[in-house]
Design a protein that fits this description.
The chain has 66 residues and is mainly alpha-helical. It contains four helices and no strands.
Length: 66
């Protein structure tokens, strides 16, 4: 349910239903398009940095006014 908060459709990943056909299509799409795979991989890595331990610690320290 929280996946849309972390995944940007077509940018950092794909949002699909629990459906083997959709999953297969997206896997084929990425395996046939190395540029798209590379771009999405970079985007996903950059997005993941928003949830790093350092950022989490900064948020916690600010909330606790340390």
């Amino acid at each position: 349910k929280q996946i849309p908060e972390f995944v940007e459709e077509g940018k950092t990943g794909f949002l699909i239903d629990y459906d083997a056909t959709q999953l297969s299509e997206r896997i084929q799409q990425l395996s046939n398009d190395n540029d798209l795979l590379s771009i999405m991989s970079d985007n996903a890595y950059n997005k993941s940095r928003e949830y790093s331990s350092e950022i989490g610690l900064d948020i916690l320290e600010k909330a606790m006014k340390l």
